[in-house]
Amino acid sequence: MVHGSGMQLCAWVKVDGGADIEYDICGGEVELSFGGRFGDFQLHATEDGLAELIATTSAALDEMRAGAAGE
């Protein structure tokens, strides 16, 4: 399904510590592979999309760590 947000979503993935995560640069996009080369989940992003992903996941990590510190 495609939304006006510029994102297409078909599946989900859970990433635990020690997960196999690899990347390739392909024609101006990054391809992130979670779980190895076969039977994996792939995420493709432009440079701007990757920067947004990093900013958002960094903020989430900071919030998780702050919550864990306050427990």
Could you list some keywords that capture this structure?
71 residues; alpha+beta; three-stranded antiparallel sheet; single chain
Written account of the structure:
With 71 residues, this protein is α+β, with helices and mostly antiparallel strands. It has a domain at 22-69. The chain has one helix and three strands. The chain has one helix spanning 47-69, and strands spanning 21-26, 29-34, 41-46. It has a three-stranded antiparallel sheet with strand order 1-2-3. A hairpin with a 2-residue loop joins β1 (21-26) and β2 (29-34). The protein is globular. The mean pLDDT is 85.
What is the structure about, briefly put?
This protein has one helix and three strands. Helix content is 32%, strand content 25%. Strand 1 and strand 2 (29-34) form a beta hairpin.
User: Helix proportion of residues, in percent?
Assistant: 25-40%
Query: How much β-strand is present in the residues?
Result: 25-35%
Q: Report mean pLDDT, rounded to a whole number.
A: 85
Distance between the termini: 39 Å
**Helix count, DSSP H or I runs of 4 or more residues:** 1
Structural class: alpha+beta
**In one word, what is the shape?**
globular
Strand numbers in spatial order across the main sheet: 1-2-3
Counted beta strands? 3
Give the helix/strand layout:
Blueprint: E1 21-26, E2 29-34, E3 41-46, H1 47-69
Antiparallel strand pairs: 1-2, 2-3
